[in-house]
Amino acid sequence: MVNGHDSEYTGRYVVLFDRSSQESGISALSSAAGIAPLERVTGTESGNVAELLERPDVSVLFEDLSAAVVEVRPEQRHALVTTAEAEPSIVTAEPERMVHALPITTPQQAPTEFFPAFRSDEDVITRHTMAETAAVQGPSWIEDGYTWGLQAIRTHLSHLTGDGVKVAVLDTGVDTDHPDLAGQLEASESFVPGETVEDVHGHGTHCIGTVAGPADPQQGPRYGVAPEARILAAKVLDNMGNGPDGQILAGMAWAVSHGARVISMSVGARVRPGELFPQAYEMLAVRALALGTQIVAAAGNDSRRPARTAPVSRPANCPSILSVAALDTALAPAHFSNGAVNGQGGEINIAAPGWQVRSAVPGGGYRAMNGTSMATPHAAGVVALLAQAHPDASAADLSAALVASAFPLGQPAADIGAGLLQAP
User: Fold this and answer.
1) 373 classed as catalytic
2) Which listed residue (373, 399, 405, 415) is catalytic?
3) Rounded Cα–Cα distance for residues 358 and 246 (Å)
4) Is 203 designated active site?
5) Helix (H) and strand (E) counts in the chain
6) pLDDT per position as a tens digit, 349-374
7) Would you call 359 a catalytic residue per the annotation?
8) CA–CA separation, 349 vs 383, rounded Å?
9) What is the pTM of this model?
């Protein structure tokens, strides 16, 4: 998840239109601001979206979400903003920013190693069987059958597997040849110009493994929450772990059109104290909910507890996106995990394991990693379990059930929301 990046703007704008009067908004922007001509795409027509997003001579309209990434000349940006404010058919227009997936760099963890090595001698003493025991006594873990994270959220006690539920992971791609994950992939697509969906960075493969690693991996312990879920892998960040909002938007449209019940986004950008949530992402999340898709996102890794707690990152700071904080093996907020510093939307909704989380990485292997990025796919996997158990439930109902079933840990809601994520 995000660490150490300030706002970075691309010069383009993300524009959301009223679905009922979309053409009026497009016409207004074309005449008043001279935006580049629109190329219209749907989520199922994603083959050339990456190339379109790279072209400075076109704007891209995602028909499924009535949202566009708009190219406009610098001298016309003011006209675009004033037109958007005055035109009722335009819901919002915001500058496009960059988002990132980066390692945790703290005094406790040297920044020179992205994947902290998983070592068998880091397995500890006893298996956790109930959240109550962990909360009262403090956990110690044996990871012979399940990772400590799966034990903490009680996946090892659940009969559910996420059978057939589609989960989209928007990240740095996936190792399509990983022996644990190849059979889990329903579809994959790259929205990064000039790069295939193959995961060079490693972040995306790790997150996908946590969502849906198999019940019997090539090498134990089991690390996947929903081993029979179907993964939609969208590469929206490049091989360095960076990408603009437009690529995230493209991945969201693709995921919704392919029937994702949940979108897992361990990506984002830091925000300042007092900064409002992005209207574009909020409205996109509302539209996704209406289409049956819940978005979960990482709260961010900018804190240095106990000295400083940073605000929840964007887009996790949107009210309609489920914000996930990270817990360490003592089920306390991880020292890097962001918290509820800002107002509406900037709260934490739930907390999940995010310290020394073992999962798959490119090349067929495994590593333990730290971050709210690692906590988020735990939550996405549990949404998949809930969707299997309640196939007719709305996306909002699934989110409400996930929050309602959390186990309270006695920590402030500003740090862990409703509490520890629990599998049904």
Assistant:
1) yes
2) 373
3) 31
4) yes
5) 11, 15
6) 999 999 999 999 999 999 999 999 99
7) no
8) 14
9) 0.90
